[in-house]
Structures are given as structure tokens and as C-alpha cells.
Amino acid sequence: MAFVIGNIVKGLYNAVFRPAALVTVPTGGPDRSLPAKVDQAFRLGIVYLVNLTLYAGPLTVAGIGIGSGQSIPPWLAGFTGTEPGALLRFLAGFVQNSLYLLGITVATLVGAHIALVITLQSKGFLRTAHSVVYSTSIYLAGIFTVVWYLTSAEGVATAREFVINVQVAFIYRMIDLTESDLVFGIDRPDVIVPGEFSTTGEYAIIVLALLLVYYFYSLYLGTRLNHDAGRFEGVLVVLIVILLPITYVIGSIILATIQSGSFGI
Amino acid sequence: MNSQLSSESDEAQHETTDSTDAGYSGGRRSRRNLPLRTVPSIRPVLVWMGVTVLAAVVVAGVILLNQNAFGGAQTANLLLNALLVLTLLAVIRLSIRVFILTRTQYVIDSNHITRRYSLLMRTWSREVPIHRVRSSELRQSRIQHVLGFGTVEVNQGLGGIQLENVHNPEQVRETLTDLTKRQDAADASL
Hints:
Largest sheet of chain A: none
Helix content of chain A: over 70%
Structural class of chain A: mainly alpha
Strand order of the largest sheet of chain B: 1-2-3-4
Number of strands of chain B: 7
Structural class of chain B: alpha+beta
Largest interface: A-B, 15 and 17 residues
Oligomer: heterodimer
Largest sheet of chain B: 4 strands, antiparallel
Mean pLDDT of chain A: 84
């Protein structure tokens, strides 16, 4: 027990004060033999799964995702059926809650590694995977947790609306950029900050901002330390990760415009 | 030894380094002055701390003077608070580094390179035998270069030792190279 608590304290200390220690590939791996690489990949998988469970588990228990009384999405109904038992419903909720984090992890991993391959700085996929697994499963999971908190907690209405407004304004900016006449489900916000923040709401936003900074910084550090890359490559990887949501939103707008038949070239 | 080092001033650190550096031009004299005991300087870290605070003040000034560009007074206030917390965390991190560096000692003798530090009545020691030295790398950031310090890393990537912020890093590295060559020659003659 003391060992586990010690490790948690050490992990938190590293997450706040020594992100480099978290994202750096330990000495001796994973550039050795094939079995060593397989072993390293397996360890990374376990670390990621544990962190994913630590993130998605409490959310599912709290009823976020597929709670009782809610219908199962069609893509999951094929596996669980439309009226699953409690355990299957819990598992379906867990899978749904994990998907956001998993999707962004995969996109970040691919984007970051492509940037390194293009700049001829890659020292191996597992080295990228190491930094991405640790930075997403700690900092990105933290970001999602704060967002979930803002979604469900009371007394943080202004902060919640602020986060939504920022995202909606971002999507409208992309719609304007693509000159699409697509109508988004939510109206364009008149103001980004709808009123005075409560103290808790303000703290939550500050934590969110700090986690974002840590997330990008840990990716930068991981690139530089694990691949012996320069500042340019480090910044490039961060830029590509920042561009991922922009690309995703623009892609979705173009797709929606094509599907609605109003896409004029 | 460690308790003495922890109370040493930065000036004293230089004396320790310089007195031994003099004997590190190789040959018999170098052998006589072994072991080389030196402590890392905290000056580069203190400069970093100053740079961090200065950068935070500049960014805060930019935000305060251009509040509308950052979405109004409320979002500017949020950004300033986030910046304040971030700066505080960076200063705490650098202070911890200073604290650890003042309790660290490097020893190079004819057989080993040792990095040792004591904290809260516990001592951590890492040692690399000279005959196991495969590589040594000298790195100098701009701040280290201006202040005349550098970091010598032995056996990078092989679980080696980092001699951080040492004075006259070129000489320390030459000493290591000299000792390694001597060890290789001794091994070859056996």
C-alpha cells in the first residue's frame, strides 16, 4: 500500500514539476532486440490501459455516457444488444467514455510520428509512443476530466458556458474560413464570457489552461528528449497536434457541405 | 563531507573546482591531485529563474495592455491568473533544483566517477567505473556558456552520470578522456 501511495505521490510530483521524467524513454529501451521492443510495447499498452481506466472508470460509475435508462448507440448495440444487463451497460458506457481519449491519442501519435519521419528525426515509433502515451494519459485525461466536471457540476454555469462558447466560436471561425453556408446546431455566441465567473469556475478554467500548456510542453519535451530532436522539430510536432482539431473540424464541415449538396467549386 | 558542501557558497564551489582543475592537464600531476571533488554551480539555475520571472512579467504586461485582443477584461484576468500559477510552479521547480544542486557532489578518482547527493538525511550515490566509460559528451547552453559552466554527460543513454553546471567543463571532460585512455592502456598491457 505504501508503495502504491509512494508511486502516486511521485507520479504527481513528476507530472507537475518534472514532466521530462514522465515522457522520457527509460535507459535501456526500446531500441534493442525485437523481444525488447515487444516487451516495451506491451508495457506501454498496460500503462495506457490503466490510465484510461482511471479516467473512464469514475466517469462511467458517475453515470456519464450510457447511464441507466439511456439507449445504446447503434454502433454498440451490435455487440451489447439494445437492452443489455447492468454489466454490459457499464462496459458499453466505459467504451464510449474511453473513445474520445483513445481517438485523440491515436491521432496525436500518428500526427507526431509523421512529423518526425518527415523531418528525418525519428528514432523509432516506440519512442514517440512513449511520450504520447504518457502525455495523453496524464495531461489530456486531466483536461477531459475538468471538462466533464464543468459539464456536470453545479455553480460553474458561467465557466461551462465559456468553454462551450470558445468551442462554438472556433467551429464558426472554421465555417467562415471555408466560406461554407453550413448552419451549425448551436447559434453563434454574441459574447465569449457570458458573465462573472464563480471562484470554483475560475479555478477550473485556470487548471484547464495549465493542463493544456503541460500537454503541449510534454509533447515538445518527448520529441526533443526521445528523438534527440531540435527545437524546430519539437515545435513542429506541437503545431501538428494543434492543427489536428482544426483539420478535423474543417474536414467535417466540408463533408457535411458535400452531403447537403451545397458545396460549390 | 556532504553537510559541509551543502553550506558552501557558490564562491567556495569555484575554489574547490579551480584548485583541482589546475592539476587536470594530464600526466603525473593529475594523478597526484586525484580525487577531483567538485560541486555544481547554482548560478545558471538562478539566471534561468530570473529569465522566467522576467518573461512572465513581459507576457503579463502584454496581456494587460491589450485586454481586448484577449477577449476582454475577464479572459485577460483568467490568463493572468494562469500565468501567475505557471510562473510560481516554474520558480518552485527551479528552487528545488537549486536545493538539490547545493547538496550534490561529484568525485572523479582514478577508478570511478561518482555523483552523490544528500537530502533529508538520506544519501543517493551513483557511480560509473572508469573502465566502463564508453563516451562523454559536453553540453553548454547559452547561459552556461556565458557564465563559463557546462554539463558533462558520461555514457549517455547507458544509464551514465551527468556532471551538471561544472566549472571549466572542457577540462573536466579532458580529464575523463585522459583517465579513460590510461585505463584502456593499462587493460591492454595486461
